[in-house]
Design goal:
166 residues; alpha/beta; 7 strands
Length: 166
């Protein structure tokens, strides 16, 4: 038998195993709502896994493997989570802070610094460890910070810091 057939068989067996989700090496800081989201997602995955397991031989093996991979990821994220206290001091930007800023063109934006798993740029939730998050972290109202971007650095002026969105 040709080795090519052996390798194809091995490749087919490995293809059914999903690629593991990368776990960040950064501290897993989360807000209270971020922790609640992590718990809810893990619970949802457990329920889906139970449904598939209850099907026995009729279960979709790939779906089961994907669910098990995702459960490993979310369980690890829950174990490593460090919940940050709610924002009380609005003097400095910190995880959980809502920050209003203006760029060099005068465009105003508002974002909230959150943990990696909670980030959603579409609604203004920015990972604290992202380039924008790092630029804003620790800044005060009136500070100018440099956002280092691949498209070129951009100067931002901090206009307001709050515990809730405006």
């Amino acid at each position: 038998m040709s080795r090519a057939f052996v390798n194809e068989d091995q490749a087919a067996a490995q293809a059914s195993q999903p690629v593991e989700r990368q776990v960040s090496t950064l501290p897993n800081y989360v807000t209270e709502s971020g922790m609640a989201q992590l718990r809810a997602r893990a619970e949802e995955l457990r329920a889906l896994h139970l449904e598939q397991s209850a099907m026995g031989e009729r279960a979709d093996r790939q779906a089961v493997a994907d669910l098990e991979r995702d459960l490993r990821y979310y369980n690890q994220r829950l174990q490593s989570a460090k919940v940050v206290p709610p924002v009380r001091d609005v003097q400095n930007v910190q995880i959980g802070s809502w920050v209003s800023y203006a760029d060099e063109q005068g465009v105003h934006r508002q974002v909230c610094l959150v943990g990696e798993d909670q980030a959603d740029v579409g609604v203004g939730l920015i990972n604290w460890a992202s380039p924008l998050g790092r630029a804003l972290m620790g800044a005060r109202v009136g500070d100018e910070v440099t956002w280092q971007r691949p498209a070129g650095d951009q100067l931002l002026e901090i206009l307001a810091i709050s515990a809730t969105p405006d």
